[in-house]
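Database export, one record per block. Field names are fixed; values are copied verbatim from the stored entry.
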Amino acid sequence: MSDPYAETRGRRQALRGHAAMLGFSAAVSGSFSLGVMVANDIPPVALTTVRFLLASLVLAVLVVVTGGGRGGRHGFSRADLVAPWRYGLLAVLYGGYFVLMFEGLKTAHPVSAGAVFTLTPLLTALIAWPLLGQRPLPYVAAALAVGAAGAVWVIFGGDMRALMGFQIGQGEAIYFLGCVLHALYTPMLRRLNRGEGAMVTASLVTLAGFVVLMLYDGRTVLATDWLGLPALVWVALGYLVVFATAFSASAMQFAAQRLPASKVMAYTYATPVWIILWELALGHGVPGLTVLPGVVLIVAALLILLRAD
C-alpha cells in the first residue's frame, strides 16, 4: 500500500528540483546576453581566468559552509586531492569552452548562440555512448533529434538557402567548437570522479582552470587594464561568478538529487527561450518570426523530456 505522505513529499521535492533547474537555466541564459554586451571590451582569456579564480573561492566557501564536501562533510578532504591531474584535464575542457564561448559572442547573436548550446545534449550523448557505454533511451533520442532540428533552424535564422549552403556565422562556428569541448567535459566529469561532491569538483576544476589559463596566456591577463574597464564588464563578471557559476552549480546539484537525469538535462532546451526574455528585458529586441518554428521544436524537446520518466 502506497504512503500518501511519502508521495506528497516526493512531489514537493520534485517541484523544488524543477524550480532549481528553472533558476539554473535562467542564470546560465543571462550569461549569453551579458556576454555579447562585454565580449569586445575584454579579452575572453582574461575574463575567464578571473572568473575562474573568483568562482573557485566562492565555491570553496560554499563547500565549507553548506557541507558540500565528500559524504556531506563541511570542507575538503585529502581524498579530494588524489590524482590532481584530473582537475587539470577537466579544466582544459571547461576553460576552453568558456574562452571559445566569449570569443564567439563577439559576433554571434545571443539567441543563435543559445541555440548552439542546445546541441550540447546531443553531442554529449554521441560522446558518452562509446566513452561510458551509455546508450540513450528511445524517447531521449527522439527529444535530442527534435531539439537539434530546432537548434539548427534557429542557428541559420530559418533561411533554407543558408542552411543548404551551410552558411553559418563565424561566431556560431567558434562557439560550436566550445560546445564540443563542453560535451566531452560532461562524460569525462563522471568518468574521472572518485566520490567528490559536485561543489568540491566545481571548486577544484575552476581553480585548476585559473592555473591552466594563466600558464596558457597569463600575459594577456596581466596586460589587461582592469581599472580602465567599463563598469558593465565588472557587472557581467560579478554575474558570471555568482549566478552563472556558483548558483548554477549549486542548483544543478540540488536538482540532480531530486529529479531523473533526463529531466535535469531537459532544461538545457529552455536556454533560447530565457535568452529571448533576457533580450526583451534589456531592450535589445528579439529575432524575427522566421526563427519561431525552431524555438517551437526546442520547446517540444523540453516537454518530451519533462513528461517522460
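Remark 1: Residues 16-307 form one domain.
Remark 2: The longest helix spans residues 4-38.
End of record.
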